[in-house]
Specification:
By secondary structure, the chain is mostly helical. Helix content is 75%, strand content 0%. The chain is built from nine helices and no strands. Helix 2 crosses helix 3 and helix 5 packs parallel to helix 8. The protein is elongated.
Amino acid sequence: MTVTIRPVPTTAPDHRPSEILDSARRAFIEKGFDGASMQDLARAAGMSVGNFYRYFPSKAAIVAALITRDLDEVEKDFSEILGAPEPLALLRDKLAAHVRGHALNDDGPLWAEITAAAGRKPEIGEILARMETEITRYLTSVFALVTGLPPEEAVQRYGAHAALLMLLIKGSATCSHGRAPQSDDLNALILRMIDRTLAEISSDNTKV
C-alpha cells in the first residue's frame, strides 16, 4: 500500500502591516504627525478606516510598530558590531552612515514631531523611552566589550556617553534634508563629536 504524504498547507505571511507602516510614514511626513488623522492614514494605505483600525488602533500603536521595526535593524547592526574585529571602528562607521543618511531623507522632521508629541502624550513618551533604553543597552554592551569592563560598570561609566551619542544622532535627524543653511557644517561637527566621544572610550581601553 502506497501512502501519499501531502504537504501541510501553511498560512502565507501577512505583509500588510509593513506596507501600512510604509504608507503611514509617508503620510506623517507629508501632513505632519498631528496633522495626519487616522482617516488620512487609512486612505494612504488604501483601506477603509474600520479595516485600518484592525491593524493599528491608534497613532501610538503605529509609532510603537515603527520603533519595533527600526529596533530590529538596530539589533542586526549591533550584532555585526559586537562580532567585528574592531567594534568601535564599525560603530563609528554605522553612526556616521546614520548622520549622512539623515541628510538624504525626510525622516528628521517626522521624528522631531514624534519627539515633541512625546511631551504631550505619555503613551508615546513611554514608547520613545523604551527605544532609548534599548539603544543605550546596545551601546554600553559595545563599550563593555572593548574595555573589558563588566556590563554594569560599563553602564555606570559610559551611560552618559551613550546618551550623548543618541542626542547627536537625533540632532542630525532634526536638522536634516537641508532645512538650515548651516546643516552641512552642523553635521560635520556632529561627526567630529561622535569621533571624540568614541576616542575617549578607546583611550580608556588602554587604561583598564
